[in-house]
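Sat 14:20. Reprocessing the chain from the morning session after the first attempt stalled halfway. Input below, unchanged.
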Amino acid sequence: MTFWKNIVTKLNLRHSVILMIVVKSEGSSPGKPGFKMAVSEDGDLWGSIGGGNMEYRLAEQCRRMLEKKEATILIKKQDHHPDSKEGNSGMICSGIQWIAFYPLTPNKLTLVQQLVTIEENRQDDVVTYIETGILLSKPTSEYELPNPVVNGSSWRFTEQPGLKSRLYIFGAGHVSLTLSKMASDTGFDVVVFDNRKGINTFDANHYAVKKSVINYTEAARFVEQGNHIYIVIMTFAHQSDRDVLKQMIPKRVRYLGMMGSELKVESIFETLQNEGVTKEELSKVDAPIGLPINSITPAEIAVSILAKIIQIKNRNIVNSEQLTQ
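Finished this time. Tokens:
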């Protein structure tokens, strides 16, 4: 949110800004689609498109464009292979990224204010970056996903900035507290539920954007659906894990995981199958949860869970078939 608000501040002061955004990347490029950096006419800059010498050089190019009052939208290819002949970035990390430059003059203030509103209100509006400008629209389907395309001097990158990755955690114990901090630090909005009042780890959780004491039998109504939604079940009891899991399985979300031993997971799965849940539906549940790193302590368990979630979030190719449903 601060990114766009900073631009609003500069435009209100009649300072033009150049927005750089990575619209496509390949390989181990440090800048991924959606990475943004802004350079203001007064010399300030914020955000990142991947860092290093490349970022410094492109920021300097923005400053020159601002000095000359250049208002042309353009795109630059940055090739991070040391032996590349075209668009050599001066970096050796391999990969390629394409960065679009959007000059934002004070007459673009309304557009940027709309972007701030979209993020603040968690709206599902679609923002499309193309060679002629930045377009805002309502989604044509429930799950509008980025589809980066670059073809010569034409490009298209789509995002829904209001739909920030959100992690729902059922259970407010020690692992939940540590996971909340780690997830918050890595850019997730965290929501924590428990059915008990007065839990010290619940009260100590200052990392969640929302905490609620609920009846687990009504869990479904508290969780939205979407490609930006991640769910972790780690309640204090076998029965409540099962109650919550049964309600979460029908939801279309990016990730659904449940903490527990193999024996516990098998028992819960068997019960749910007897209640009509199919093996195919259960196969989409990450249980036992997380990456297998032989984790023991609450912090180690939280690391294994978040590592798995980030692995899924950052997959290069994402489509609606990857949603659990």
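DSSP finds nine helices and 14 strands in the chain.
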